Amino acid sequence: MKQNEAYILLPTVVILSVLSMAFxxxxxxxxxxxxxxxxxxxxxxxDKIQIVATMQISKDSEKIMSIDNAKVRVVNKQMExxxxxxxxxxxxxxxxx
Length: 97
Description:
Helix content is about 60%, strand content about 25%. With about 100 residues, it is an alpha+beta fold. The longest helix has about 60 residues, at about 1-60.
């Protein structure tokens, strides 16, 4: 009788282990996808702020402004965009001579 119990227990443990590993790997992949999408969203926000800031600078010539909860500071043809706790350095979008 004890041999029959072992034959049932071992495959059950192996199957549960494989399912657990699959769940852990799936969770890791999902977290990586979320982080990548979050970074893409942040970069799209920065691009939008860069475009809006360039248009506003061409109209008003302001050097420091606030756009969509981001602080923008312009020095020469460079801009520093502070969005949350991250700082991005971008160029002004101007026509090359």
